[in-house]
Known about the structure:
- By secondary structure, the protein is an alpha/beta fold.
- It has ten helices and ten strands.
Amino acid sequence: xxxxxxxxxxxxxxxxxxxxxxxxxxxxxxxxxxxxxxxxxxxxxxxxxxxxxxxxxxxxxxxxxxxxxxxxxxxxxxxxxxxxxxxxxxxxxxxxxxxxxxxxxxxxxxxxxxxxxxxxxxxxxxxxxxxxxxxxxxxxxxxxxxxxxxxxxxxxxxxxxxxxxxxxxxxxxxxxxxxxxxxxxxxxxxxxxxxxxxxxxxxxxxxxxxxxxxxxxxxxxxxxxxxxxxxxxxxxxxxxxxxxxxxxxxxxxxxx
Length: 256
């Protein structure tokens, strides 16, 4: 049975303050929990309802989860009340959030770091991390003002990539010092920058993308070696930050 303390914890983990105090996060849904299990991150407790075991895939996931952590079985209605999603898939897990530091990152001779400068939408955050994972980015740096990486919607949107790509949360001065020490060139996406196809990217490159409305912060803009843009030839005023980052990351990584 799920204890009242466990239920309070699960509800509390919808709030950033509680996630940071406990060092824990919530993962929901079949695919996300499968990726979480594969990641090897420490799991605290799983909650499953009968809806999960309506399919062979769900039955296997419940069995695998029981081998990894304590599992509480609850009615579908109870899980729906605990979940942060409108249509839960019969499974949620409380897990320990990894804490990465800049000094722990391993970078090769050619490497790309994605810098998120005040990204506030958790869906955009998850998309950016997923894109970084797909294109071989070595780390994501979430600067102050960026949404909590372990927001439940961020976790769902990242579709497992948060468990594979290191996400660090430094101040910008800390990040700038590390980039300089490691020989990275900082590029920043900006509509007023030079067209991206003109650049000969450095082997070690960091790409900064700014807030959905306000764009880059002044300190990131000043520190960038170059401002980079994607020419828009149609009628749209701008690109979604996730789309823009995907295009630029592809250009950065395609010859690596």
